[in-house]
Amino acid sequence: MHSEYPPTLPAEYADIEFENNAQRLPLVLCLDTSSSMAGQPIQALNNALMEWTRELHDDVSLSYSVEVAVVTFGGQGVVAWRGPQLLAPRAPVSPFVPAHTFQPPQLTAAGVTLMTEALELSMHIVAARKAELRASGLQYYRPQICLVTDGLPTDGTGHLTDAWHRLIPVLADEQRARRFRLYAIGVGGITDMGEQVLQAFAPKFNARLQGFPFRELLQMMSASANAEQKGAGDEVFEKIFSQFKTQRPAWES
Fold it and tell me: How far apart are CA 138 and CA 77, in angstroms?
């Protein structure tokens, strides 16, 4: 599914709406919007995205360097969003939006859990964005991808699938090469097997959380972006993540 997107995107979209040559930090939110997220969970996610967007706009250091893209997997299949707009699979436009102009989509929950394909699309749009930035002579920080799910990977008919195994060596290589930092977060009633999938995807940065603490999760992503800007070592990210997992926000202390 991710292969439907062009490997590079038109140059006229490469630097939209930025007024300076700040180093960029691409951030992808890869969000489960399958039917199990219906009701309170998807409402909590939408509310958290709105609050986080306001905080991003108010954060001077992040608002002019972070670029946000949203990928969802659910009733519409695997799709990318440019702010509140759903992009067609072959749309000749980058899904990344400067944080200071980002507005979140209004998400609904339905459908199956095409987690494998969503993560592949997330990796693809990060690679395409980095190529754009390089072509424009712009530098970038290590991108971040945050996968959030409450279930197990399925195929298009909703049946459990082992297709996610194909991602394990790819993700391991990408992490070794420091091409992006992946966070894999399980929420709600995610099972032991679901947790094992996330551990395989992101051995260092996986979590299984009670309930749907999306607000804290998004604040953790901001804290991680701030640390990335400061050139922090791996131990700093591990500390931020460890404190997030135990619900003690390191960035508020």
Answer: 33
Going by C-alpha positions, the residue among 25, 103, 30, 53 that lies closest to residue 219 is: 53
Q: What span, in angstroms and rounded, lies between the C-alpha atoms of 48 and 30?
A: 15
Contacts of residue 14, Cβ cutoff 8 Å, sequence gap at least 6: 94, 132, 133, 135, 136
Dihedrals phi, psi of 49, to nearest 5 degrees: -65, -40
d(CA 74, CA 47): 19
Q: Which two tokens stand for residue 75?
A: 């009733």
The C-alpha atoms of residue 14 and residue 136 are separated, in whole angstroms, by: 7
Pairing of strands 206-208, 181-186: parallel
Quickly count: other Cβ atoms within 10 Å of residue 156's Cβ. 13
Question: What gap in Å lies between CA 38 and CA 110, rounded to an integer?
Answer: 7
Give the model's confidence band at 20: pLDDT under 50 very low, under 70 low, under 90 confident, else very high.
low
C-alpha separations of 164 from 51, 121, 170 in Å: 32, 13, 11
CA–CA separation, 21 and 138 (whole Å): 7
Contact predicate 136/75, CB 8 Å: no
Q: What are the tens digits of pLDDT across the range 174-201?
A: 999 999 999 999 999 999 999 999 999 9
Q: Which two tokens stand for residue 12?
A: 């006229």
Matching residue, tokens 């991680």: 224
- Quick one: angle between helices 192-201 and 167-176, nearest 10? 40
The sign one gets for the Cα dihedral 198, 104, 26, 166 is: positive
How far apart (Å, rounded) are the C-alpha atoms in residues 81 and 95? 6
